[in-house]
Write a structure and sequence with these properties.
The complex is a heterodimer. Chain A is mainly alpha-helical. Chain A contains 15 helices and 3 strands. Chain A is globular. Chain B is of the alpha+beta class. In chain B, β3 and β4 form a beta hairpin. Chain B is elongated, with a radius of gyration of 17 Å. Classes of the chains: A mainly alpha, B alpha+beta. The interface between A and B is medium-sized, with 26 and 15 residues.
Chain lengths: 455, 112
């Protein structure tokens, strides 16, 4: 810990003296008087993405039991708090600093020196809310049994290194963006960079932790552990859906690309198609209109359309969303059958559909919009005469994100588990993490108890 | 004297209390209980996976009445609690040996 502190301090001192680029913004404005629309657009969209933290907090808390509500809310708070500080100090530099060998960036430390510039600060804020989103996805997959201390360490390393380095490969000029196929690997708003990274680290965490007590019966069959508040889960889903209207359209990083209207429509259609496909699939399977799974299906559709949303037509968004809805259902049952306990469906929603979103670009991209630009090269997929080049670039990205996020995530959780143990004691798990870890039950005056057995 | 243990739907409890008051028995004890009848609970579903609720919440009302009011009270309570569908509840009747009012020391029917 002391070593780390010294490291941080030395990096901080090295960035002195501080020469400002354009800290007031006056020169930038004088040079490009049309920029305020873009700044306001990106910031407002960034605020919407920040609000998704509330959405994640509500979905995860609602889908879990009341005895772990304080713990989940705390984790959803601390991941954005820590990510803000760590990403500011170092993480952003790894993402957007000067490229070293296509692997990692260097520069922008503590946003000092030449980085004290309105344009850089704008970009930093945008990248930060994305980093926070990736970090907070994991808390759902490891819910109801991961120690709070382990979550602190996890958040630190994800926002310091795992997220920024992968994001550098795609968005920071790294090797994935320079692949010689199609336009290189592309991921418009982060199906892969944000969601697959979060979902796959979550998968690693859930695997290292093992299932919650009571998730599997003595016969080895999976059992339901109902969440305590469907109202919170639904509210959270609506908040996320709303936030996604910042997440995707804002990723043009310019209000002057009127393509934002197309992005918004595609985002919404994929959410609707995902929800509807899930609802019908679940009705066919169980003869019930299963709200919980439909909420997951909504989010699955949103995750999947995040990579292709700027490069496709509306009909493709519907197809991509509907496939995402089926994938959510398949993913939830598949993971359960493999003994992997993901209490809120984060791996199916963000991991599996993040990968599907990346793939879908290579199929459905229609060649009407470029790389965050109205100029060529336009992104064109297999179904629009683009050949297999883009598809190949997307497949390489899928392999890369799986290896990087799942691999490092597994290593991180495993090393933590071997060194200090990442799972709470069985007694604490039964009683709930709220009282043992935080001293604060979420509902001290609210105590109905029902006896339940699995069917 | 007879003690009635009346198990009814929670949403019918207020009607049953009103019926008992009509019959001249405003004093009673009630509480929420978990239990089940011959239909053995319910099945629910969460994100595609079913689970059983083996016990349901009911309201149990205990009241002690005079022997001569027995048929009248049973009739009034049954009418108030009935919906005609499964789960309307049950009434158990037990003989009571004595009743004592703590404040005055009155005994038997005087103390009801």
């Amino acid at each position: 810990m002391r070593l780390f502190f010294l490291l941080v301090l030395s990096v901080f001192l090295m960035s002195l003296p501080a020469f400002a680029a354009d800290a007031t913004g006056a020169e930038t404005l004088a040079a490009q008087p049309e920029l305020p629309a873009d700044y306001v657009w990106v910031l407002v969209c960034g605020f919407l993405v920040f609000f998704m933290q509330a959405g994640f907090a509500m979905v995860e808390t609602g889908f879990c039991r009341s005895k772990n509500a304080t713990n989940l809310l705390s984790k959803n708070l601390i991941d954005f708090v820590l990510a803000s500080l760590v990403f500011f100090a170092v993480g952003y530099g790894f993402l957007k600093g000067e490229d070293i060998g296509g692997f990692i960036g260097s520069g922008h430390w503590f946003l000092r020196g030449a980085s004290y510039d309105v344009g850089t600060y704008l970009d930093f804020f945008w990248q930060l809310v994305f980093c926070g989103t990736a970090a907070t996805i994991v808390s759902g997959a490891v819910a109801e049994r991961l120690k709070f201390s382990a979550y602190l360490v996890y958040t630190f390393f994800v926002s310091l290194f795992i997220y920024p380095v992968y994001a550098h490969w795609v968005w920071g000029g790294g090797w994935l963006s320079r692949l010689p196929f199609g336009a290189g690997h592309v991921d418009f708003a982060g199906s892969g960079v944000v969601h697959a990274v979060g979902g796959l680290i979550g998968l690693a965490g859930a695997m290292v932790l093992g299932p919650r007590f009571g998730k599997y019966g003595k016969d080895g069959k999976p059992r339901a552990i109902p969440g305590h508040n469907m109202s919170l889960a639904a509210l959270g889903t609506f908040i996320l859906w709303f936030g996604w209207f910042g997440f995707n359209p804002g990723s043009t990083f310019s209000a002057h690309h009127l393509r934002i209207a197309v992005v918004a429509v595609n985002t919404n259609l994929a959410a609707a198609a995902g929800a509807f496909a899930t609802l019908l699939t679940m009705y066919a399977k169980t003869r019930k209109w299963d709200l919980g799974m439909a909420l997951n299906g909504t989010l699955g559709g949103l995750v999947a359309v995040t990579a292709p949303c700027a490069w496709i037509e509306a009909w493709a968004a519907v197809v991509i969303g509907a496939v995402a809805g089926f994938l959510v259902v398949w993913g939830v049952y598949f993971l359960e059958s493999r003994g992997i306990d993901d209490p809120v469906g984060a791996v199916s929603v963000h991991g599996i559909n993040g990968l599907w979103g990346l793939l879908s670009v290579g199929l459905f991209a229609d060649g009407t919009y470029g790389l965050y630009s109205l100029e060529p090269p336009y992104i064109t997929g297999l179904f629009y005469g683009g050949g297999v080049g883009q598809l190949l670039a997307q497949l390489i990205g899928i392999a890369a994100v799986f290896a990087w996020a799942f691999g490092l995530g597994y290593l991180l959780f495993k090393v933590m588990d071997l060194s200090f143990g990442i799972r709470v004691s069985p007694e604490e798990e039964l009683r709930g993490l709220d009282v043992y870890e935080h001293g604060t039950p979420a509902y001290p005056e609210f105590t109905p108890q029902r006896t339940m057995v699995a069917s | 004297m007879i003690k009635l243990e009346i198990i009814v739907r929670g949403e019918k409890a207020a009607d049953v209390v009103a019926a008992l008051e009509q019959c001249g028995y405003p004093g009673l004890t009630m509480y929420t209980v978990e239990g089940r009848g011959t239909q053995k609970g319910l099945t629910e579903q969460f994100r595609g996976r079913k689970y059983e609720i083996p016990f349901l919440f009911k309201t149990k009302i205990e009241v002690v009445i005079r022997d001569e009011d027995y048929e009248k009270v049973v009739e009034a309570v049954s009418t108030a609690a009935r919906t005609g569908t499964i789960g309307d509840g049950k009434i158990f009747a037990l003989p009571v040996m004595d009743v004592i009012r703590v404040r005055t020391g009155e005994r038997q029917e005087q103390a009801i």
